[in-house]
UniProtKB/TrEMBL annotation:
It comes from Bryocella elongata. GO terms for molecular function: oxidoreductase activity. Coiled coil: none annotated. SUPFAM superfamilies: GroES-like (SSF50129), NAD(P)-binding Rossmann-fold domains (SSF51735). Pfam families: ADH_N (PF08240), ADH_zinc_N_2 (PF13602). This is NADPH:quinone reductase. Residues 10-306 form the Enoyl reductase (ER) domain. It comes from the Bacteria. InterPro entries: ADH-like_N (IPR013154), ER (IPR020843), GroES-like_sf (IPR011032), NAD(P)-bd_dom_sf (IPR036291), YIM1/Zinc_Alcohol_DH_Fams (IPR050700).
Amino acid sequence: MKALEFVDAATDVRLVQTDRERPAPGDGELLIRVRAAGIIPTERLWYPTLCTQDGVPRRQVIPAHEFAGEVVEDAGGSRGFKPGDLIFGMNGWFKDGALAEYTLAVPGSLAKIPPGISLEQAASVPISALTAWQGLYERANVRAGERVLVLGAAGAVGLYAVQLAAIRGAKVVATLSAQDFAVVEALGASQLIDYRSQRFEELAGPVDVIFDTVGGDSLERSWSLLKPGGRVITIASSSGSSTDPRTREAFLLVKPISSQLSEMAGWLHAGRLKAFVKSVVPFSEAKSVFSGTEIPGSRRLGKIVVTTT
């Protein structure tokens, strides 16, 4: 099968095309024909990309751990999936990803693509939407009427955090660039703060929940806004290794959970939740998607998606 892999994620961001043997599903796994894969440029810096679970450096890693495609083969225990089903979801962080013609996944990390949602839209959803769900609904248990501050509201995860907080009935305070105000307000934010020209800590007021996608100075400045009993969630990559115990406790790493993805699939179909695709890149032109180079014709917001057909 065709695949794209990092030469060496630690030292070389280039992707090279290679031919790999098609993976064979083990017990309880599904073989997926990938049609589209979501791209997170910082993935090349993540520990599972750089090292195995035992700390051994990895090379020739296939990235992209969220995808949409078609079930090809079931090795047993599929719990409702069968060959021919169109699905979207995630696969294991320490395993090869989906920037290839085929990938492996377990049923518990997948959901069926709802009618009216394209493969490209579906591939852009899993990691960002599940991160927002697990941070707001599981970790913070956000409730109707609470005030939620979303730092980085126009980012890939922030866009879902705004929507999911609003769906739960929370009042959303959003920090972002002014040029994205209209989009994020339409998603449910009730207070918009331009991080470039305004100090959010002077304008936001007390909040019940802080959902941080930025980290660093922004997270540090937000602590003073937290009400007694308030909750903080951060997904900023620097937070997992922070020496601040508050930050380490607030750090969230997303898990693939089929039931959550399935419920959001219904919301996507009903129009309650919106997916954002920044650009669609064909497999033949995908070698630079992790380089940070702007792709011609890209929209401002959303995720880069690579198609494999």
